[in-house]
Backbone:
């Protein structure tokens, strides 16, 4: 590919400041930064690997001068194409900035560079942990988690990434480095929250102050067989009424059929965690609810319980057993619409002849739909794409919103879906990034 | 250049969801400061692009696909059960079958033709044995040293002596011990690897030993059908059964041990070492392991092998290790040759058989 003169000049300037080894231009490297976990692809003109916030600021200034788009990238685990340079330009790989800057054990606070991953966060304090581990392997970076406001099965208890964020250093689209952090705990969150979930469109995070919660002493997980999805909603009501503080609750629709070939329509996984005493009380209450409702269940502790949430093992179990690829979409709907949304996903799957598994979290109204397809059958790949768009538009017409946890990414948010959000964000974007160089093509269109 | 992978391989590559879990244990990813290109995920993704015609097969691409530590750690973590390393090996052999032999393996072919082993370097086998050594038939244990062990005679000898502590009836093939073919198998030369293996099977069956203990863990893992037991797992079994005992303990100033394990079972040697009284076994990152699979990197890209070594020994130094114990003779030999000495950054580098022998006798 012939590179434009401005791109060549910008690359030269950046290489002379950051060093040749921090600017990757050959075909292998560019291709290696052309994908994430979404199945989509876009090849950058170059990949820049900064080591400091000043490096990032320099890169952004140069990109601005030449009007070249830049796309921040963490570990590239996005399921929605977030780190793909859809308008070309540079990918800024943040993974080299993965240090721990300082920590305050007493308050569970830690200041880290934005490229550190969940695995490394989990090693900082012996008795604290990172409850948001979206990809399961702990590969996602803090920058990516903030940019997507990532959620996890434990979000019922711990919230989403934004809830753990106490401050952030960000390089704005004009290259300015800004620290958004109160001297004490955040008391006016609005500006911080503007950056949370901004999907790399408003700036590049270079470091963050996080508060990690304590690891619960004990946990018990339950695997419960449900006849259909309505059972899940009844179960949710009973749990809410009884005051059991579940830390995770997910229902897998079509799981047994896809993994075992037959069986009940839905399987629920619930976790309770806390001290021994509190767990004992909740355990007996939960067991009596399950007994009254005559739902068959098994309970698990320790490693077996942990395994359930890691990377949504059950969801990927399906792809594993069936040896097929997955296309995933994440939605959030009011609890009363969960059932309709899941049924809509099933209908789409059967119309397009694709097996489908839905995971929903009844308390959050979070629904993840995954279509299985054969990756070497072009028609099936195309049908899987169509299935995703179909579920998104159906869910919007039912009254759902797109992008909870995973982010909206490429072409997922439209004006008619979220008019106020799009108008406001556009104004902010125009102000901060008048040339729209910062991750264009994501979250909102110009 | 166009390539035509079979449907099974294309599907296996296409199933990758791109989660990146296989980058976490990948030593190449860590050697290169987490550069995506070098990790296992990129190898799968780029091969998938190659198979679907979205990438050109260049000489650079070819050598990229053939050059890694060949540790296989990437295969142990995939959430959708892709045998990542297996897929890389299949792609390599398909490329070779299509006539795309990378320059990086040409030397190995030549070495194999001239010395019977792909590791080259004017390898002479059996220098650790008496010049008039003859293998004995029907022995209880046949020690298969593996090519690299012959390059570090003291390690081969230590292994042999350890086995002699266990049984009076130990033998080895000696001067003309064939290569098992494991290394060329992982480099995609399926047919040649099969030939090598068969030559070895023939040599062993002439001696009809009761069991074969292999000094190279790549041979046992690539060819389970050989029925070999790896040196370390045999030692563990013998310790369990009380056939040998660790008698000595470590001196206080020499007890911080950093283990570079074999890649096939990274816990095995540490289980053995943890039996030693007053040992302080240091925690090693999961991407640290090394065996004969590293040969290609060592011989064709020594700068990168050296970067791996520096990163690993930096970690050992930060943990204040007194000794670095290297489980695999192949890895010990590569490290020793690269450094030209067995002390580095304040730690003594010792081979596992040697280390054990001293504590057992
Ligand atoms: C198997 C699997 C399961 C998943 N399950 C979940 C789930 O349950 N919940 C969930 O929320 N997500 C899930 N995800 C998606 C993904 O893990 C998260 O979105 C994660 O936060 C992305 O982190 P990353 O470091 O890989 O970022 P990337 O994928 O590299 O980037 C994601 C976005 O963040 C931006 N970005 C990255 N770093 C920075 C930075 N320093 N500054 C500014 N912007 C930046 C990018 O531009 C992009 O828009 C899953 C992914 C996989 C592969
Ligand atoms: S075999 Fe080892 S070095 Fe090669 S890609 Fe897999 S993990 Fe990386
Ligand atoms: S672990 Fe499996 S699915 Fe994930 S990137 Fe590697 S090969 Fe792909």
Residues:
């Amino acid at each position: 590919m012939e590179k434009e003169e401005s791109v060549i000049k910008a690359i030269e300037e950046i290489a002379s400041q950051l060093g040749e080894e921090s600017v990757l231009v050959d075909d292998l490297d560019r291709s290696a930064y052309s994908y994430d976990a979404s199945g989509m692809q876009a090849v950058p003109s170059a990949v820049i690997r900064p080591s400091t916030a000043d490096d990032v600021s320099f890169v952004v200034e140069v990109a601005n001068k030449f009007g070249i788009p830049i796309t921040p990238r963490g570990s590239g685990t996005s399921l929605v194409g977030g780190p793909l340079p859809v308008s070309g330009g540079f990918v800024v790989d943040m993974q080299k900035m993965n240090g721990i800057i300082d920590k305050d054990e007493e308050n569970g606070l830690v200041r880290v560079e934005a490229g550190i991953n969940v695995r490394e966060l989990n090693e900082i304090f012996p008795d604290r942990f990172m409850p948001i581990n979206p990809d399961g392997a702990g590969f996602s970076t803090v920058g990516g988690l903030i940019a997507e406001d990532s959620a996890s099965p434990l979000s019922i208890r711990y919230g989403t990434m934004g809830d753990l964020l106490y401050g952030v250093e960000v390089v704005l689209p004009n290259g300015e480095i800004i620290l958004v952090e109160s001297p004490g705990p955040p008391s006016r969150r609005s500006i911080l929250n503007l950056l949370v979930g901004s999907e790399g469109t408003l700036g590049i995070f270079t470091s963050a102050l996080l508060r990690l919660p304590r690891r619960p002493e004990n946990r018990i997980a339950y695997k419960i067989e449900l006849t259909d999805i309505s059972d899940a909603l009844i179960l949710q009501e009973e749990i809410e009424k009884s005051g059991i503080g579940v830390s995770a609750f997910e229902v897998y629709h079509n799981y047994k059929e896809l993994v075992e070939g037959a069986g009940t329509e839905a399987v629920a996984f619930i976790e309770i965690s806390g001290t021994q005493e509190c767990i004992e009380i909740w355990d007996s209450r939960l067991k009596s609810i399950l007994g009254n409702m005559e739902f068959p269940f098994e309970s698990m502790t320790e490693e077996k319980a942990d395994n359930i949430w890691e990377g949504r093992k059950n969801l990927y179990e399906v792809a594993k057993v069936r040896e097929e690829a997955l296309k995933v979409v994440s939605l959030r709907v009011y609890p009363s619409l969960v059932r309709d949304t899941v049924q809509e996903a099933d209908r789409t799957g059967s119309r397009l002849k694709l097996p489908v598994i839905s995971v929903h979290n009844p308390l959050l109204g979070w629904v993840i739909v995954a279509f299985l397809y054969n990756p070497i059958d072009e028609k099936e790949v195309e049908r899987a794409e169509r299935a995703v768009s179909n579920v998104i538009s159906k869910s919007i017409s039912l009254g759902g919103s797109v992008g909870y946890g995973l982010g909206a990414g490429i072409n997922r948010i439209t004006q008619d879906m979220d008019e106020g959000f799009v108008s406001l964000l556009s104004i902010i974007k125009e102000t901060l990034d008048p040339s729209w160089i910062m991750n264009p093509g994501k979250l909102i269109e110009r | 250049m166009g390539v035509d992978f079979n449907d099974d391989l294309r599907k296996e590559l296409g199933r990758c969801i791109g989660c990146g879990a296989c980058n976490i244990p990948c030593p190449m990813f860590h050697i290169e400061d987490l550069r995506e290109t070098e990790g296992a995920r990129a190898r799968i993704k780029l091969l998938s692009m190659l198979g679907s015609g979205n990438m050109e097969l260049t000489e650079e691409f070819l050598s990229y696909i053939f050059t890694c530590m060949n540790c296989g750690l990437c295969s142990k973590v995939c959430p959708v059960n892709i045998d990542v390393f297996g897929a890389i090996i299949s792609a390599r052999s398909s490329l070779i079958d299509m006539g795309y032999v990378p320059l990086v393996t040409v030397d190995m072919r030549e070495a194999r033709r001239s010395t019977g082993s792909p590791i080259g370097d004017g390898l002479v086998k059996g220098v650790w044995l008496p010049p008039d050594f003859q293998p004995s038939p029907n022995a209880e244990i046949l020690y298969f040293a593996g090519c690299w062990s012959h390059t570090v005679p003291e390690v081969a000898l230590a292994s042999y002596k350890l086995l002699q502590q266990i049984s009076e009836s130990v033998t080895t093939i000696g001067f003309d011990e064939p290569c098992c073919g494991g290394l060329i198998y992982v480099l995609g030369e399926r047919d040649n690897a099969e030939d090598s293996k068969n030559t070895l099977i023939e040599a062993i069956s002439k001696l009809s030993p009761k069991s074969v203990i292999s000094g190279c863990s790549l041979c046992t893992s690539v060819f389970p059908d050989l029925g070999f037991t790896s040196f370390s797992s045999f030692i563990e079994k013998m310790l369990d059964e009380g056939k040998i005992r660790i008698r000595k303990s470590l001196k206080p100033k020499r007890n911080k041990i950093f283990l570079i394990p074999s890649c096939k079972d990274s816990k095995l040697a540490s289980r053995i070492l943890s039996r030693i009284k007053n040992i302080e076994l240091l925690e090693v990152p999961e991407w640290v392991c090394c065996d004969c699979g590293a040969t290609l990197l060592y011989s064709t890209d020594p700068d990168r092998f050296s970067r791996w070594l520096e990163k690993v020994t930096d970690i050992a130094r930060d943990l204040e290790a007194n000794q670095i114990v290297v489980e695999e003779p192949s890895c010990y030999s590569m490290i020793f040759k690269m450094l030209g000495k067995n002390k580095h950054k304040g730690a003594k580098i010792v081979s596992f058989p040697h280390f054990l022998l001293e504590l057992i006798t």
